[in-house]
Amino acid sequence: MRYTPVLRYTLMLSAVLPLLAILAPLDVQAFQFVDGDRWSRTATDDGTLKQGQPTTLTWGIIPDGTGISGGHGEDPSPSDLIAMMDGFYGSGGGDLTQRPWFALFADPLERWEEVSGLSYVYEPNDPGTTLNGNNPPFGTRGSLGSVPDVRIGGHSIVVQGADNILAYNYFPDSSDMVIDTDDTSFYGSTTNNSRALRNVVMHEAGHGIGLSHVDSNDSAILMESFLNLSFDGPQLDDILAAHRAYGDAWEKNGGNDTSGSATPLGLLASGSPLSIGADAIDTAVAASDIDFISIDDNGDTDFLSFTTSAAGLLDVTLTPRGPTYNEGPQGGSQSPFDTSAQSDLTLTLFDTDGSTSLATINVNPAGGTETLVDFDLGQVGTYFVRVTGSANSAQLYELDLSIVVPFVLVLGDMNGDAVVDGVDVPLFMQALVNRGAYDAIGFPIDADISGDLDGSGTFDLGDLGLLSGLIGGSAAASAAPEPSSWVLILLAAAGVVASLRRR
């Protein structure tokens, strides 16, 4: 059984700035982790949880009247969070999930789900015992069907006569959250879909998963010392920290550590490239951004699969992602943090069996892009790419794949689909009538090559009469076919072309 000293963070109203000052007791950067900083056991997962492992947390809102011990130094008193929220948004519905405001707690937790290996499950049952992050002991409290891992309540938080505290939260393995229900004007604001409340919940939930405060003088971070309501939810530094502790969202449900559980990227076709991890390019993260993938340490392995529909030449680019910004512990010195150079990444391509290595690329140091160019995939099938890192740190990355399928020339094929059929007839005729228009609209095949059916070296009226012999796949262009509707159409077309040219 693991016991940990009570660690809690406080969210306070600033008397000077129109921002929210956050006080923290530890000097730990948000991206730095040891195993003790994250959950070791939950109601769902046993006590073997470790760094980088996806984790499920249950959460619930304690009934009004449930005691709150006053763990921040305020007087103990019962929770009245539900009454406060009902007063702001309405109380419709019997259970809490039917309340109009329930989503303002559920959605912030689900946002952490979208960008990391965390999963949150609502637990409607609560034992009614006093909310106290240190009682029962850490690591033994959550129980499926009876006690949430994370209990949320609220009451008046007045410490030494000061009533400027918005909320506080405990660290794992007990992450109770306490909201100051005196701050009615703040929590009652519906601006930006009640962003004030949602950002507080997301910030406090960040402490609840083990993230500490971090300061930055050139970027906005959810877990920094001052809450900035100009953005919505976790920013890139927060996401990177969550990846380090719990992995990325692709690690859930068994992870992607083997080819058998690879993350499927889909069909890779000529002209339709595939990509993953493209959102990790800036410190600012929009509330809709979910495309993040990373290696959380030197023991993590990511397998990704793609399927080809035709043999071709493959290009793969592995790019370490993330900007450079100033960062440091709250109240401490800041220094540039290059999130794109935290680990030296290696790219490996595997054959369709998932185990035969076709190519391994690692020619650049940490922060450098690894590229595989014009690799000949000789057969159709599902292939695999593996990404690994060399350092015990989290590294965001982007993976881009494209394929070029060599063109196979088929005489009479005017649209490049390698088949001669009725679709090619009007294109054939249009090319004869107006060669300039043919080139301008971008037909993929040079008419002088694919349309030269008689081998004269040019595309002209002499080729028109031979086209019908190729329709349906026949290669006997020199054979004299029986009269057919295609012949009549082509003869008529020849007359039209000749007439147009005389004019």
Verbal overview:
The structure is a single chain. With 503 residues, this protein is α+β, with helices and mostly antiparallel strands. It has three domains: 8-220 and 227-246, Collagenase (Catalytic Domain), CATH 3.40.390; 252-404, Sandwich (Jelly Rolls), CATH 2.60.120; 424-502, no CATH class. Helix content is 19%, strand content 24%. The protein contains ten helices and 23 strands. A hairpin with a 6-residue loop joins strand 8 (165-170) and strand 9. The radius of gyration is 32 Å and the shape is elongated. Mean pLDDT is 82; it is low at 1-9, 12-35, 436-445, 474-484 and 496-503.
Shape: elongated
Q: In the residues, how many domains can be counted?
A: 3
Q: Count the strands?
A: 23
What integer is the average pLDDT? 82
Task: Characterize the main sheet.
Answer: 8 strands, mixed
Q: What share of the residues does DSSP label as strand, in percent?
A: 15-25%
Number of helical regions: 10
CATH class category label of the largest domain: Alpha Beta
The CATH homologous superfamily of the largest domain is named Collagenase (Catalytic Domain)
Write down the Rg: 32 Å
State the share of residues found in helices, binned by percent.
10-25%
CATH topology tier name of the largest domain = Collagenase (Catalytic Domain)
Outline the secondary-structure elements:
Blueprint: E1 8-13, E2 20-23, E3 55-61, E4 67-68, E5 77-78, H1 81-89, H2 103-115, E6 118-122, E7 150-155, E8 165-170, E9 177-180, H3 184-187, H4 191-208, E10 214-215, E11 226-227, H5 236-246, E12 263-268, E13 274-276, E14 294-295, E15 301-308, E16 312-320, E17 324-329, E18 335-338, E19 345-350, E20 357-361, E21 370-377, E22 382-389, E23 395-404, H6 424-433, H7 435-440, H8 447-450, H9 461-464, H10 485-502
Helix pairs in contact: 2-4, 6-10
